[in-house]
Amino acid sequence: FGDWPYAGKLTWVMTSQPLVSQHDDVIITHQSPADVIADIRGRELGQIWLVGGGMLAKSFHDQSLIDDYIISVIPQLLGEGIPLFAVGAQEMPLTLTHAETYDSGVVQMTYRKRRTVVNTE
C-alpha cells in the first residue's frame, strides 16, 4: 500500500485480488458489503467511512447500506472521469443536511437518505 493514509484506524479493504496486508490495522476481505457492515457493527466501532470508486459505492448503495452521502464539488472541469456511482445505481431520495464552502472553492454537501414511511391506515 505504500504510505497508508489511515494508519491507526482499523480499515477493511474490499478486493477480489489476492492481496496481503502489511499493516496490522488493515483487513483484506472478499466479503459482501452487508457482511463487512455486520462485522464492523459487531465490533462496535461507531461510524463507518466508505472510501472507494463507483463500483464499491454502488454495491453499498444498492443494498441501502449508506446513511449519509458526503459529496464534494471541486472547481475543476474534467473531460472524463470515474462516476460517483457505477451505471445502474438505484435511485434514492436524499435530504441535504449540511453544506460548507471552503476558501479553495470546494463545496462539500452532506445528504441523508430519506427513510420511507409505511402507511399503516
> Given the helix and strand composition, which structural class is it?
alpha+beta
Distance between the termini: 55 Å
Q: On the 0-100 scale, what is the average pLDDT?
A: 85
Number of helices in the DSSP assignment: 2
Poorly predicted runs of 5 or more residues: none
Largest sheet: 3 strands, antiparallel
Helix content range: 10-25%
Strand tally is 5
Proportion of residues in β-strands: 15-25%
Topology order in helix (H) and strand (E) letters: EEHHEEE
What Rg, in angstroms, do the CA atoms define?
17 Å
Shape: globular
Order of strands across the widest beta sheet?
3-5-4
Describe this structure in words.
The protein is of the alpha+beta class. Helices cover 15% and strands 24% of the residues. It has 2 helices and 5 strands; from the N terminus they run ββααβββ. It has helices spanning 33-42, 54-61, and strands spanning 11-14, 26-29, 68-73, 94-101, 107-113. A 3-stranded antiparallel beta sheet has the order 3-5-4, with no helix packed on it. The protein has a two-stranded parallel ribbon with strand order 1-2. The chain is globular and about 40 Å long. The N and C termini lie far apart (55 Å).
Write the layout of secondary structure elements.
Blueprint: E1 11-14, E2 26-29, H1 33-42, H2 54-61, E3 68-73, E4 94-101, E5 107-113
Parallel strand pairs: 1-2
Antiparallel strand pairs: 3-5, 4-5
Q: Can you give keywords for this protein?
A:
alpha+beta; three-stranded antiparallel β-sheet; two-stranded parallel ribbon; 2 helices; 5 strands
